[in-house]
Design goal:
By secondary structure, this protein is of the alpha+beta class. The chain folds into four domains: 119 residues, Conserved hypothetical protein from pyrococcus furiosus pfu- 392566-001, ParB domain; 88 residues, ANL, C-terminal domain (GMP Synthetase, Chain A, domain 3, 2-Layer Sandwich); 111 residues, no CATH class; 74 residues, no CATH class. It is 44% helix and 21% strand. The chain contains 15 helices and 13 strands. It is globular and about 60 Å long.
Length: 405
């Protein structure tokens, strides 16, 4: 009991400050005491949790108490803005393979003006060169012309955290999964092509309007198939794979992306492969498990993850061998520039090839980074190598280059 009280006292000293204004964890707990505790997938929370692997952080992770809910700041549609409190609890749950975590979802729109000022994001901070209000206006006009079936409403904004345009498509709870997937693909492909937007600058997500309504057992063929899998714990049939966009191209895209994202976080290759396959599985099935409980959804995620691991373990190992096994201490620089040989944009450097790929490899998972490194090795120190030309019709016509010193 003494250890638990000490932990609580230490945690209550946390605070958030912006300018002269401060919000303490104690204040936050007071105003959120009536918010019910619910559960959220650990995999989903891990995308937003802070990571640390030094002895002090690992000790905090081991000592933290999962009894206390993680405080998650969310938008009105319950999409996560960021984790307010509970990073160590999320890490502990993930370390111990707990599929879900107790959380309290704190809606940003319901907070008082002072809390919003401290915990929110200042509008003037949107200064990314990819952002343009005109693009958002054009997107709105295009989506209107689509007249997407079963769509209730939509919202278009700029996600300053992700550095991308975010299009939210809202549906009723009895909408069809095939229609939602088709609408999402139509919006993503058409806007990318028409506006010349790269994949990393455009995100399309499906959401539901109104109160939560559980699907009846026989509402759609997809729901029947998913529940049969949950009951019988059988392998995913091809019909399920098709309906959740289980295409090989999509699988390989995420496998490369998450391998580069997580490679430096794991010393054990089997743990790395499991994490990569789990995250890939989540991306593939997310839209198909929106109405399932955490337990049911986790079974589907685990089924797909095992299927991916069985079929693509060799691919992951070969990707590591070809792309990530030749680390070094060279300085690699990533350039985003508006003109072929300069202009506006940004430049960032990382020491070490794997550190560089951890930061920028997932921008272009389909790029052959092994060949990029071979070309860099043949160039004089510091000389830029152009890796991506702007798409025709791209509003900003950005180029992407890298160099090595």
């Amino acid at each position: 009991m003494m250890e638990e009280n000490n932990m609580i006292q230490e945690s209550l000293e946390d605070k958030w400050t912006r300018g002269k204004d401060t919000v303490t964890l104690k204040q936050l707990l007071r105003i959120t005491k009536d918010i019910p505790v619910t559960k959220m997938l650990t995999k989903k929370l891990m995308k937003h949790a802070l990571h640390g692997d030094n002895p002090e952080e690992m000790s905090k992770i081991d000592k933290t108490n999962l009894k206390y809910p993680v405080l998650v700041l969310v938008n009105d549609d319950n999409s996560i803005k960021y984790i307010l409190d509970g990073h160590h609890r999320i890490q502990k749950a993930n370390k111990n393979n707990f599929k879900s975590v107790n959380v309290k979802l704190i809606k940003f729109s319901k907070l008082s003006k002072n809390f919003k000022k401290v915990l929110g994001e200042e509008e003037e901070e949107i200064n990314d060169p990819d952002y343009s209000p005109k693009i958002i206006e054009m997107m709105g006009r295009i989506v209107e012309k689509f007249q997407l079936p079963q769509l209730v409403k939509y919202d278009i904004s700029w996600d300053n955290t992700e550095g991308s345009y975010l299009i939210k498509l809202y549906y009723s709870h009895d909408s069809d999964i095939d229609v939602r997937i088709s609408n999402k693909e139509k919006v993503l492909s058409t806007l990318s092509k028409f506006l010349g937007l790269k994949a990393y600058t455009l995100t399309v997500r499906s959401h539901f309007t109104g109160s939560y309504v559980k699907y009846p057992w026989d509402s759609t063929k997809l729901q029947e198939q998913i529940r049969r899998i949950v009951r019988e714990e059988m392998n995913l049939p091809s019909t399920i794979k098709r309906r959740i966009n289980y295409s090989e191209d999509r699988v390989l895209y995420y496998l490369k992306k998450f391998t580069m994202d997580f490679f430096l976080d794991f010393k054990n290759v089997d743990e790395l492969i499991k994490t990569v396959c789990d995250n890939t599985s989540y991306e593939i099935v997310e839209s198909a498990i929106l109405h399932l409980s955490d337990e049911e959804g986790n079974k589907i995620i685990n089924q797909v993850s095992k299927d991916i691991a069985n079929n693509y373990k060799d691919f992951i190992l070969n990707f590591i061998k070809n792309t990530l096994s030749d680390d070094d201490n060279e300085t690699y620089t990533f350039y985003k520039h508006s003109e072929r040989n300069g202009g506006s944009g940004f430049t960032q450097s990382r020491v070490g090839w794997n550190k560089f790929l951890e930061m920028f490899g997932s921008w272009f998972p389909d790029l052959d980074w092994n060949k990029v490194k071979e070309k860099l090795n043949s160039l004089p120190s510091g000389q830029k190598l152009l890796i991506k030309n702007p798409l025709e019709g791209h509003v900003y016509k950005y180029y992407f280059s890298v160099s090595k010193k």
